[in-house]
Task: inverse folding
C-alpha cells in the first residue's frame, strides 16, 4: 500500500480565492474547479449550471447544411429513407432518435442495423443491395460510415445517396457521400471534437428543425421540442464513455433528469426490469443498469429489439421487449464471466504475457459480442492496452480497449499491414485480422506501446484535488459537490485526501468490501472500500493517509456521510 501513485493537483491559488469570493462556494469546491482548469467565475457558472442555451451552432459542423438540404428534399419528395446504424448503445440510441423525429414529421423512414456476427460493423454491399431492393434513395449512417469509402461508392453506383453522421476517427480520404458530418474531420471548426454519434444526430436535428421551421413546415402548428430526446442522447453519450465536458455535459445533465422522470414508455419499462423505477438515475445507474441491457441486444441478441423498445408507445409491448433485453443481458454476463476467468487464469500463469506492454489474445471459443467488455476489464486490471480476438474459419474479429496515455487507434494505424481492416478512436477500436498474422501483430503493437508509453503509465494513478480535514466534509459541501455531476471521462468523481487518520473497527461486508471508521481531530466518519476486504489485517488500529470521494449513504431511511475509499497509505510503511 498504496495501491496506486498519488498525484496532488497543482491548484492556482489566485483562481481558487476568486471562485470562493465571487461564487460563495466552499474552498474545497473551488480547489476542485481550479484543478479542472475552471478558473473564472463565468466558466464555473457554465460548468455548475449547464444550460441548453450554451450549445454550439450546429452549422459549425462541416457539411451540416449539405446534409440538411438533402434530407429536406427527401422529406418533401416522399423518398424512402433508411437510417443505418451500429449495434451498441450509441448506435441504437442514434437510430431511435433520428427515426422517431423523422416519423413524427411523416417522413418515409425505416432503419437497418447489421448483424454483429454475420455482417460486422459498418456498411456492407449485401445490406446496400437489400436497401436498394426496398426502393430507398437515401441512406443516413449513424455511428458508422466515415471509413466505408468503397461501400458508399458502391451505393452511389446504385443511385443511393448517403449522409454520414459519425464520430469515429477520419482516415486520409473521405467517402463520396452527399455530406460527411463528423467533428473529427480536420477541416471541421465545430469546437467539441468528442461527441457521441447520438450527440451529432441531436445537432443535426437542431439544424434540420431550424431550417424546416424557416420554411414554414409547422405553420400554425407546434414544432417538436427536441429536449424530449435528451434521455436517449444521454444514454448514448454515457454508453460511449464520451468526455463529460461541454455539450456532452449539458446533454447528460438534462437527459438524466428526463430518465429519472421516465416519461418515455420504453425507458419506464427498462427501469422497471432493472429495479430502478423509483430511483433517481445518475451516470452510475445508467452505466450499470440501463445501458448494459441495451448493449446486450446488440452483443448476443437482436439490436432491433432495443430500438423497438426505445420507440415503443405501448406499455405492454415495451415490457415484453424489456424482458427480452434482460434475458440477453443475463446471457451476456455469463459469457463474459467465463472468458474473463479464462484470460486471468492464463495471464497469472504466464509471466511473459504479463510483461507485455500490450495484451493481444485470441480464441475460437470466445463470443465476438462480449470480447469488448472483457477487453475493457483486462485493460483496467493490468493497466495495459488489451485486444481480444474471436476466431472463426481462420479470420479474427477483435475488440480493443486502451489506457489513458495510449491512443489505440493511432497504434493500429502503425500496424495496418497486418490487419484486414480496423476502426475506432483513442480508447476503443475494432479489427479484422487473418489468424496467421496475429502473432506478428501482437509483437509489433507491443513494441509501439513500449516506445510511446512511460513505464510509470502502466501503474494506475489517483489524482487528488484537495487535501483537507475530516471536519471539512460536511453536508453543505456534499450538497455543493452534487453540482459537479454528471461524472464520467474527463469529469471524474472528485478525490480528496486526509492525512494522519486513525482506523478502527474494520470489517468485511458484502462481496469482499472493507468497511471501517476513521477519526481525526475528534471527528470520525464511516468508510467503504469496495472489493478490498483482503486488506483488513493491515488496517486495524493503524494510522493512515486516505484518498476518498465523500458521499451520502442512505440505509433504512437514515442518511449519513460516508467516505468511498480510493486508496490508503499506512503511515510509517
Result:
Amino acid at each position: 500500500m498504496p495501491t496506486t501513485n498519488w498525484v496532488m493537483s497543482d491548484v492556482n491559488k489566485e483562481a481558487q480565492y476568486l471562485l470562493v469570493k465571487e461564487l460563495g462556494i466552499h474552498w474545497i469546491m473551488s480547489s476542485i474547479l481550479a484543478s479542472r482548469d475552471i478558473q473564472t467565475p463565468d466558466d464555473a457558472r457554465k460548468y455548475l449550471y449547464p444550460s441548453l442555451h450554451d450549445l454550439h451552432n450546429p452549422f459549425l459542423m462541416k457539411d451540416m447544411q449539405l446534409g440538411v438540404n438533402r434530407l429536406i428534399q427527401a422529406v418533401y419528395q416522399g423518398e424512402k429513407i433508411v437510417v443505418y446504424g451500429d449495434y451498441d448503445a450509441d448506435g441504437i440510441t442514434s437510430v431511435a432518435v433520428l427515426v422517431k423525429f423523422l416519423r413524427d414529421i411523416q417522413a418515409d423512414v425505416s432503419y437497418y442495423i447489421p448483424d454483429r456476427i454475420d455482417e460486422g460493423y459498418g456498411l456492407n454491399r449485401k445490406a446496400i443491395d437489400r436497401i436498394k431492393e426496398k426502393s430507398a434513395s437515401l441512406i443516413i449512417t449513424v455511428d458508422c460510415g466515415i471509413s466505408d469509402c468503397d461501400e458508399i461508392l458502391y451505393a452511389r453506383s446504385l443511385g443511393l445517396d448517403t449522409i454520414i453522421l459519425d464520430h469515429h476517427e477520419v482516415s486520409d480520404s473521405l467517402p463520396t457521400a452527399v455530406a460527411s458530418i463528423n467533428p473529427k474531420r480536420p477541416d471541421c471548426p465545430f469546437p467539441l471534437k468528442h461527441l457521441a454519434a447520438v450527440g451529432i444526430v441531436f445537432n443535426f436535428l437542431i439544424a434540420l428543425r431550424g431550417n424546416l421551421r424557416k420554411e414554414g413546415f409547422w405553420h400554425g402548428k407546434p414544432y417538436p421540442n427536441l429536449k424530449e430526446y435528451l434521455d436517449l442522447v444521454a444514454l448514448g453519450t454515457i454508453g460511449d464513455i464520451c468526455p463529460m465536458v461541454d455539450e456532452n455535459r449539458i446533454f447528460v445533465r438534462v437527459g438524466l433528469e428526463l430518465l429519472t422522470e421516465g416519461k418515455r414508455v420504453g425507458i419506464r419499462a427498462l427501469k422497471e426490469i432493472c429495479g430502478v423505477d423509483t430511483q433517481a438515475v445518475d451516470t452510475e445507474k445508467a452505466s450499470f443498469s440501463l445501458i448494459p441491457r441495451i448493449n446486450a441486444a446488440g452483443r448476443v441478441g437482436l439490436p432491433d429489439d432495443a430500438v423497438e423498445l426505445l420507440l415503443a408507445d405501448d406499455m405492454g409491448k415495451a415490457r415484453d421487449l424489456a424482458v427480452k433485453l434482460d434475458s440477453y443481458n443475463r446471457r451476456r454476463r455469463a459469457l463474459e464471466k467465463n472468458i474473463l476467468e479464462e484470460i486471468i487464469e492464463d495471464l497469472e500463469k504466464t509471466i511473459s504475457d504479463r510483461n507485455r506492454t500490450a495484451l493481444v489474445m485470441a480464441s475460437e471459443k470466445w463470443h465476438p459480442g462480449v470480447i469488448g467488455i472483457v477487453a475493457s476489464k483486462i485493460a483496467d486490471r493490468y493497466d495495459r492496452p488489451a485486444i481480444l480476438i474471436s476466431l472463426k474459419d481462420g479470420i479474427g474479429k477483435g475488440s480493443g480497449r486502451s489506457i489513458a496515455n495510449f491512443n489505440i487507434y493511432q497504434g493500429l494505424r502503425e500496424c495496418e499491414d497486418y490487419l484486414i481492416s480496423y476502426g475506432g478512436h483513442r480508447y476503443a477500436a475494432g479489427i479484422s485480422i487473418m489468424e496467421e498474422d496475429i502473432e506478428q501483430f501482437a509483437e509489433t503493437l507491443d513494441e509501439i506501446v513500449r516506445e510511446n508509453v512511460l513505464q510509470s503509465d502502466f501503474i494506475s494513478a489517483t489524482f487528488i484535488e484537495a487535501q483537507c480535514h475530516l471536519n471539512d466534509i460536511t453536508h453543505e459541501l456534499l450538497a455543493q459537490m452534487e453540482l459537479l455531476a454528471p461524472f464520467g471521462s474527463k469529469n471524474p468523481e472528485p478525490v480528496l485526501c486526509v492525512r494522519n487518520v486513525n482506523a478502527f473497527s474494520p470489517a468485511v461486508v458484502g462481496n469482499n468490501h472493507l468497511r471501517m471508521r476513521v477519526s481525526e481531530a475528534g471527528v470520525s466518519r464511516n468508510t467503504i472500500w469496495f472489493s478490498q476486504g483482503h486488506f483488513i489485517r493491515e488496517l486495524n488500529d493503524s494510522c493512515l493517509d486516505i484518498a476518498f470521494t465523500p458521499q451520502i449513504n442512505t440505509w433504512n431511511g437514515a442518511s449519513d456521510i460516508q467516505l468511498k475509499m480510493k486508496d490508503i497509505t499506512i503511515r510509517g510503511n
